[in-house]
Design goal:
single chain, Serine Threonine Protein Phosphatase 5, Tetratricopeptide repeat, about 130 residues
Length: about 130
């Protein structure tokens, strides 16, 4: 009888251990999801801020500043779509056709859905 009780207790201990491991894994997954949501929120806010500031610089004709801002981003993230788009436009306005073309082509490669606007600029560059 004592052996049976010990076996039952051992089995309960195994079940409790499995439940505890499952709870810890669940907590880790939920923590990772929360961190990911926070990261995405910060990234979206940063991208929006970058887009707004750079668009504003282009609208004010501050092309050199826009180029510098985009270069900073592109050094860390060479495939940043908006940075490539904005730097292409800034180079376009400063008549640096070769660099403008390069960045518009990269934008088109990274975001094929932007083809209408990108191809419009590329056509204008061919006319120059």
């Amino acid at each position: 009888m004592d052996v049976e009780i010990l076996q039952e207790l051992q089995l309960i201990r195994v079940y409790v251990f499995i439940i505890m491991v499952a709870i810890v894994l669940w907590a880790l997954i939920k923590t990772a999801e929360s961190i990911q949501r926070i990261y995405i929120g910060f990234k979206d806010a940063w991208d929006t801020s970058f887009d707004n500031k750079t668009e504003e610089l282009l609208d004010m004709g501050k092309y050199a500043e826009a180029i510098d801002k985009c270069k900073e981003v592109l050094e860390k993230h060479p495939n940043h779509i908006n940075a490539n788009w904005f730097i292409a436009k800034a180079y376009y306005y400063t008549k640096n056709n070769a660099l403008s073309k390069d960045h518009f082509e990269k934008t088109l490669y990274l975001a094929p859905s932007w083809s209408e606007n990108t191809n419009e600029y590329l056509s204008k560059l061919k006319e120059r």
